[in-house]
Amino acid sequence: MKSNIGLFLTRRAQLNPGTEAAVDVASGRRFTYAQLNARCNRVAHGLLSLGVGKGDRVALLMLNSPEFLETFLAIAKIGAVCVPLNWRLIPDELALILRDSGARVLISSAEFDSTLAELHSRGPASTFVEHWVQLGVAARPEWALDYDAWTAEVSDAEPQILAGDEDVLYIMYTSGTTGLPKGVTHSHKAAMWAVLTFNSTADMRHGDRYLVALPLFHVGALTPVTACIHRCITAVIVRQFDPSGVWEVIQREQLTTGLCVPTMLDRMLQAYVPGKHVHSSLRWMMSGAAPVPETLIRAYAELGIEVHQVYGLTECCGPACLVSPENALARVGSTGKAFFFTEVRVVRHDGTECAPREAGEVLIRGEHVMAGYWNQPQATAETLRDGWLYTGDVAMRDEEGFIYIQDRLKDLIISGGENIYPAELENVLRMHPKVRDTAVIGRPSKRWGESPLAVIVKRDDSLTESEVLSWCQGRISQYKLPKGAVFIPEIPRNSSGKILKRALREQFPGFIFD
């Protein structure tokens, strides 16, 4: 049998047809594995009726929903290639991705009807799209197909499996924190191994109820939700994140696990009401995409909820490192060790292994690493070398093999010849009771070449720059201390919660230290 990801749903529907597969929190709809698989098959036959074949790209511009999941798996079954689109992008950015990927079909939900109309109006000069499908739109244009009517007219029988193994499953465009997005290509085989390494390491159990709150266009949601099918877990899908609403969903749906980025967990913590928000069913929450502040981990521990720090990238289909339940508190600040079917190294610039507690670049190897960047052979060659994925992330490994992610290489601050990792300083700043959020960037220094600047979001309006600088004294080495602090309303982040350091550096271009 080919390693086709769509077959995960077929097999689960055969083995556990009556088990609840997906819950759509927004509409209250519930689908068993048999029902979800039948709907998936209808989408597959609908795509085949449009002439979509093996290797053809199909783009999705949809909020989290069962339709997103069933469409992704339908595309997989017929051997087409899914292109999940970040719905936070503007039409110009979406048009660039559609044209770069060569997507022939675009399926969108009602929230993006104006965006769809804008893209369609640009014609073939902007995109390759031939077929436009809209979900949940009452008054759709004549050039678009209605999703429900389109899928109602076709069979729900299993389609012929046309691809698998090394064939491309999806192209996921990176968030572009340092420039234009690149299309990360993953095969069916890579996605399968990502699921296997995930479920062999994380505490995922048959019958769990998993919170899907990250956008499904992100690998941090797409790989775990596929893992849910593999392990016979119910995916409880939140259309858009609401911190107070998530607590209510946890209680109502008796959720046991989930994954949220640190900013989401922080917002949930601010919205938490003791006595009102019951969460006794919740064993743990995974968190990643950025270093998880120790203060956040300890705050959730006081609520009886373990936070398991995870480290991963789009380029490795998600999984790289995870801290185990028994080490979640004992090793606060660590992202644990490599996933079961994953290898991780920390190396110097010359490729030699770093000594314990020596900072170096993280390298990842495994069957779940990407095939490459779509249409970018040079970028692929720079990132994939000798079978290893060069991440551009900095970490250190302790004497017992636990990994501590420190920062991005490109965000490294070199001050007077010394390396300063902003994430370390950010952790110190977040412990200040008047600091809500923070980011540290390097700015030119006449004396040191570069020095840290603390960018702060206040929790208390009375916070001053001198308070911020005094707080750091004695809590971090002298050479790492910020030389100044500025205050802004919000830290810019991408859809996965990563700080947009480039945007911050552009925001303070003339800031020069003496």
Quick take:
The chain is of the alpha/beta class and 514 residues long. It is 29% helix and 26% strand.
Structure notes:
The radius of gyration is 23 Å and the shape is globular. With 514 residues, the protein is of the alpha/beta class. The strands form seven sheets. The protein has a five-stranded mixed sheet with strand order 2-1-11-10-12. It has a five-stranded parallel sheet with strand order 4-3-5-6-7, with helices on both faces. It has three domains: 33-187, ANL, N-terminal domain (Rossmann fold, 3-Layer(aba) Sandwich), CATH 3.40.50.12780; 255-408, Rossmann fold (3-Layer(aba) Sandwich), CATH 3.40.50.12780; 414-507, GMP Synthetase, Chain A, domain 3, CATH 3.30.300. The chain is built from 15 helices and 27 strands. Strand 10 (209-212), helix 8 (219-231) and strand 11 form a beta-alpha-beta unit. The N and C termini lie far apart (66 Å).
Question: What are the salient characteristics of this protein?
Answer:
single chain, 514 residues, alpha/beta, Rossmann fold, GMP Synthetase, Chain A, domain 3, 3 domains, 5-stranded mixed beta sheet, 5-stranded parallel beta sheet, 29% helix, 26% strand
Q: Which bin fits the share of residues in helices?
A: 25-40%
Number of strands: 27
CA distance, first residue to last residue = 66 Å
Q: Give the averaged pLDDT, no decimals.
A: 92
CATH superfamily of the largest domain: ANL, N-terminal domain
- Major β-sheet annotation: 5 strands, mixed
Topology-level CATH name of the largest domain: Rossmann fold
Strand numbers in spatial order across the main sheet = 2-1-11-10-12
Oligomer: single chain
Classify the beta-strand content into a percent band: 25-35%
H/I helix tally: 15
Low-pLDDT stretches: none
Q: Which structural class do you get from the secondary structure elements?
A: alpha/beta
Rounded to an integer, what's the Rg over CA atoms? 23 Å
Could you name the CATH class of the largest domain?
Alpha Beta
The 3D shape can be described as: globular
